[in-house]
């Protein structure tokens, strides 16, 4: 243990030294803003200047307070600063977020909590306001490309959806009942370019969001040497020796699926894109985009793990397959429950257990050795509190264990707490995470563990006592008993559960989700019901609950039904959460989104990455729940949360079997903070 302590101490010191060097070099790495008049200002001062000089906000009428100011790296590559302000007047309350990459403005978000945004000039016409905004932004930034984008506004009607192309730039006008968005992207032979955007969006006539990624991202290759037909052929060949492994929950061995029949092609998409982390991106550079085919193949039926097809990504300039993953459905299980000829039980140990699990005897040794390792503990805690979000970009699945090992070192303090079966009060805030492995493909199980590791890290940095109960600990009795214990020991409780649910619909008003022993005993003894939860949460201290489970957001619920209380939102919060109350519940209506599914908005982003970034923004940057979802959607999808498939609905194309749908549902106050 002493030798282990020395190694961890050395690692912690080297880690801290690296951070000091990184931030010590910050000024030399950062490029100056284009306009020298603003180059010497820090992010908070720049934000106030932009609000007044570019946005046209009437700042003199507001009382302004700086909420957060953070520094880290954008896509593990470039220094970024983030500032968040709250502006309050007699008639209005506005949250403002401003982010700078390489000292240049990347985005600004304005969200009115009460009233409307006060401008120095009234916004009577969205198109005129957009033109004025770009004129002022061009003067501020001296960005040469803004002038041409501004000129394109003279050719469009802002009252309807329209797409215009001028030379090498495409402009899309997207009109919704309460919003109008102008989005500029490079025009490359009709091919969509991801991330290299300039976006200006208005809500109810006022500026709501602006983002300039034009110079942040580059295109590394314009060559399209692989046709659509060739890409389909490459994708079909990639499936010939492909297989996937399905975890069966509890102590059951996993099952490997080696044979399946590809029925057809459900979607082909050609874009310029790249993956968001250095480990996963092409040439280790996430800021350079390349042409890529995204091919979705559907099967003749559902196979084990609820897999209905595969998603294959192919670089269009080289023909190299860069990603292949099963497409699964989180809804009602459709496969034959027995192992078929094309499925074999594996003797290898399943990856279902959490990376944070520790042998009980080792935990005892840790506590015995605590006086000896007190200095180490302080060092680890200190370094843990300095974790930066760039470390939590999703690594490739093949590198998951390596990433988990690093996280394990950085989060030793949390991993000790996670394995204690009793809830022990340490402060007024607690987080508990649950998740099952039953009928999950390996990649999905790894993604769930990765999301939970991110949550443990960032909630911990905000002073929460965190418990990781993923896998075999996720039993019905544990979930219910710990719901009571968490409320007895903490004033504010956050909870996350990942898995399957909505399988038992005998009573239409009630909802359930299953535990990790479902395969061995598919009965009510392995189901967590809403009325059971209600009986174990009488203190009403669960203020934030996210159930990444099918059908848990079908309705808000209330008192009544066959067993006294129904609906998961009502069961966890003991009230119907309101938009001005202290609680927030996030679930799904109908099916939930697989974490390994790539977004329909951007094929290089999956929902493991998206939800990790949500928690980084909420806890590291200090955004509200809504702003975390909304800014995250703008950054990676190029649209607002309310325009994203999470809110409007997503579809699984099952080929000849039709399709299934679902969408995220938020109940309660989406403007709460998680810290």
Question: Helices, strands, pairings?
Answer:
Blueprint: H1 2-24, H2 26-29, H3 43-55, E1 63-74, E2 78-88, E3 93-101, E4 104-114, H4 126-141, H5 144-152, E5 162-166, E6 169-176, E7 179-186, E8 192-193, E9 198-203, E10 206-212, E11 218-219, H6 228-238, E12 244-247, E13 255-257, E14 262-273, E15 288-303, E16 307-315, E17 321-328, E18 343-345, H7 360-368, H8 374-385, H9 400-410, H10 412-418, E19 429-435, E20 440-441, H11 442-461, E21 465-470, H12 476-489, E22 492-498, E23 512-514, E24 527-529, H13 530-535, E25 542-548, E26 558-559, E27 565-566, H14 568-573, E28 584-590, H15 607-619, H16 625-637, H17 645-648, E29 650-653, E30 659-668
Parallel strand pairs: 8-14, 11-15, 19-21, 19-22, 22-25, 25-28
Antiparallel strand pairs: 1-2, 2-3, 3-4, 4-10, 5-6, 6-7, 7-9, 9-10, 12-13, 12-20, 13-18, 14-15, 15-16, 16-17, 23-24, 26-27, 28-30, 29-30
Helix pairs in contact: 1-8, 3-4, 4-5, 11-15, 15-16
CATH architectural label of the largest domain: 3-Layer(aba) Sandwich
N-end to C-end Cα span: 34 Å
State the name of the first-level CATH class of the largest domain. Alpha Beta
Stated plainly, the CATH topology of the largest domain is called Rossmann fold
| Biggest sheet details | 9 strands, antiparallel
How would you describe this structure to a colleague?
A hairpin with a 2-residue loop joins strand 9 (198-203) and strand 10. This protein has 3 domains: 43-215, no CATH class; 228-328, no CATH class; 429-668, Rossmann fold (3-Layer(aba) Sandwich), CATH 3.40.50. The chain has 17 helices and 30 strands. It is an alpha+beta fold and 675 residues long. Strands 1-2-3-4-10-9-7-6-5 form a 9-stranded antiparallel beta sheet, with helices on both faces. A 7-stranded mixed beta sheet has the order 21-19-22-25-28-30-29, with helices on both faces. Strands 8, 11, 14, 15, 16 and 17 form a 6-stranded mixed beta sheet that branches.
